[in-house]
Amino acid sequence: MSLLEQIFGVVYAAEEEPEPTEEEEEEEDEEDLVDPMHEEREKAATHCQKFKDELEKCEARVTSKSNTTETCTQELFEFLHCVDHHATKGVFKHLK
User: Is the pLDDT reported for residue 44 higher than 70?
Assistant: First the structure.
């Protein structure tokens, strides 16, 4: 699993909920709410391809070495900053 997949797995990890009983299903009149930030982050990742490429290069460089202290932290922060910057522009459209 790549570093990027690990990070997005953590960022976009959906909480697993137990199966609802019949009573709970009947009581649930509202639709399940979906966090629009997840959708906006996925869209925003396309704007940050340059940072994603740098992160993937760094990850490849680090995993190719057996003994290194390099961590790709800076590349990760730059990518996440870019994604969040672009995602926040779109998330406010979902507010009422």
Answer: yes
Tokens of 87: 């995602």
Most distant CA atoms of the chain, gap in Å: 57
Predicted pLDDT at 78 = 95
Of 16, 84, 23, 80, the C-alpha closest to 52 is 80
Distance between CA 6 and CA 12 in Å, rounded? Answer: 10
Q: What are the tokens at 33?
A: 């709410």
Asked if 55 and 76 touch (Cβ cutoff 8 Å), the reply is: yes
d(CA 81, CA 59): 18
Residue with tokens 């990027």: 4
